[in-house]
Amino acid sequence: MVDYRECTFDVAQGIAMRARHYRGGDKTPVICIPGLTRNAADFEELAPKIAATGRDVLVMSLRGRGASDYDPDYRNYHPVTYRSDILLALDEMNWREAVFVGTSLGGIVTMLTSETAPERVKAAIINDVGPELAPEGLVRIASYVGKSSEPADTIEEAASRIRSINNVAFPDATDDDWIIFARRTFCQTDNRKWVLDYDPNIARGLSENGPAPDLWPAFASLKNKPTLVIRGALSDLLSLDIVDRMRGVHGNFNYCEVPRIGHAPMMTEPAAWDALEVFLRKID
Q1: Which of 49, 84, 102, 141 is most enclosed, with most CB atoms within 10 A?
Q2: pLDDT category, 66, cuts 50, 70, 90?
Q3: Contact 106, 127 (CB under 8 A)
Q4: Which segments of the chain are extended strands (E)?
Q5: What CATH number matches the domain at 5-144+214-281, 3.40.50.2000, 3.40.50.1820, 3.90.228.20, 3.40.50.2300?
Q6: CA–CA gap between residue 73 and residue 56 (Å, rounded)
């Protein structure tokens, strides 16, 4: 495991957002933003690979996830808030610009950042999300996010629960893969139980903050920037129809489809990493 240093960003009074900073070199740095209920652990394999290309990597846990503080006001669990948090982190790092790598929600935050602060986004890697979300994926996500459940007694039990939700997206995953998945998405409490590593109130923010903003203008703001769109071939959130319409807005983006993976690729799969590595080679 490559070493990293923990960073803390005070994004609001009493709320700290935490991140992992991997040293890599002097090329344009990379900021990685995870999905709705995920945290920095999702990038523990990808971040060192990117750092080895000669650039620093900052991997975020957004407020309410992982080691970051929970927000007492669930209304702040919103992409616009996350955009502000990311810009604050860039300022604290003294990074004028970065290559953004965003999975799912992280891709939405990337688009919104490009729309309002285009000078901060050098290039974008959008992982399995678009400016429009397929309804079947939204239904699946709503079926499990924030749903209360009893803590798991063992990591194996936690892995079984995660597998029951995500097996359709990772049909070839092994038992060991699911244990790794569980360790990234659960945390162990003081009484040795395993609980999901995010604030359940994220679901309230998702349902009560009103309809999602129109993200097509935000995606269009990337049209003059190097962009790589990665899609899991089995994805239920980013459909091929949406990808085709994205091409109509940004006709010059790079595209990679990862076979036998749904929502969302880890980007260490051979097809995804090959595309990502080639893409990064073109960016100073």
Answers
A1: 102
A2: very high
A3: yes
A4: 5-12, 15-33, 55-61, 98-103, 121-127, 186-188, 194-196, 227-232, 254-258
A5: 3.40.50.1820
A6: 33
